TrEMBL record:
Gene source species: Bacteroides pyogenes JCM 6292
Taxonomic path: Bacteria, Pseudomonadati, Bacteroidota, Bacteroidia, Bacteroidales
Protein name: Argininosuccinate lyase
InterPro entries: Argininosuccinate_lyase (IPR009049), Fumarate_lyase_CS (IPR020557), Fumarate_lyase_N (IPR022761), L-Aspartase-like (IPR008948)
Entry GO terms, CC: cytosol
Transmembrane segments: none
GO molecular function, one term: argininosuccinate lyase activity
Length: 254
């Protein structure tokens, strides 16, 4: 689960880098929207201020209002989507009917009437906040959607939903990192007999490797299960590439 999230976050970083690339352009000199006759060296200000490039057309520099925030919001929403799914999975896997993981006690709260219960409140709040963040691009688009070129006071409303999003996502990421670091995995969950049948495919694979046609192996294992005769070695032998370091994933993306 965690490795899946790591690889997803690597892809999310590419969205963030793309947003930065499109935003890191110098709009200075566009004035109120249509440029100025003042002899401003825009190339110099671009270099001195560390922009990658500039908005060459001054009208487009103003039209970027709303579009710039929307591009960044999409990147933030992509990250939030990854974190939200992790929070959902963790809450589910922590529940009584699964018990795959145990969340740290300091990140759970008790029930109002059931002394034994530990509610995953922190991850539930992380999930809700991240789901809210995923609506941010749509909010920005609806504010800036039907405006003509230039600046209008409508665009001010974007700030009140856009600027707080950075701290909200940062808080969610920090809390998620803490919980995952303290989360305990139930290493003996497969000792429960109800999980025995998850190894049925492994048994089919074993028979195929011994030369039995897949359809025959599939049928044999199915009949063994129906007759309550199924048993299998619980040692799984993966043959696909297993990524153990996030740097390997990132290098392959680059």
């Amino acid at each position: 689960m965690v490795r899946r999230v790591c690889e997803s976050l690597v892809d999310d970083m590419q969205f963030l880098q793309a947003a930065f690339k499109t935003c890191n352009r110098n709009p200075l000199g566009s004035a109120a929207g249509y440029g100025s006759s003042f002899p401003l060296n825009r190339t110099m200000t671009t270099e001195l201020l560390g922009f990658d490039s500039m908005n060459y057309n001054v009208v487009y520099a103003q039209m970027g209002r709303g579009k710039t925030e929307r591009n960044v919001a999409f990147a933030l929403a992509t990250i939030a989507g990854t974190v939200s799914k992790l929070a959902y999975d963790a809450c589910l896997f922590n529940s009584q009917n699964f018990g795959f993981v145990r969340l740290p006690d300091e990140c759970t709260t008790g029930s109002s009437i059931m002394p034994h219960k530990k509610n995953p409140d922190v991850f539930e709040l992380v999930r809700a906040k991240c789901n809210k963040l995923q609506s941010l691009p749509q909010q920005i688009m609806m504010i800036a959607n039907n405006l003509p070129s230039g600046y209008f006071r409508d665009l001010q409303i974007i700030k009140e939903v856009f600027l707080p999003a950075f701290q909200e996502l940062k808080d969610c990421l920090q809390m998620t990192a803490f919980i995952v670091g303290e989360m305990k995995v139930n290493e003996h969950i497969l000792d429960d007999d109800k999980y025995q049948l998850i190894f049925s495919v492994e048994e089919v694979n074993r028979l195929v490797r011994e030369g039995i046609p897949f359809r025959d192996a599939y049928k044999k294992v199915g009949l063994d299960i129906e007759a309550d005769l199924f048993s299998h070695d619980k040692q799984v032998r993966h043959t696909h590439e297993a990524v153990s370091a996030i740097c390997v994933i990132r290098k392959s993306r680059d």
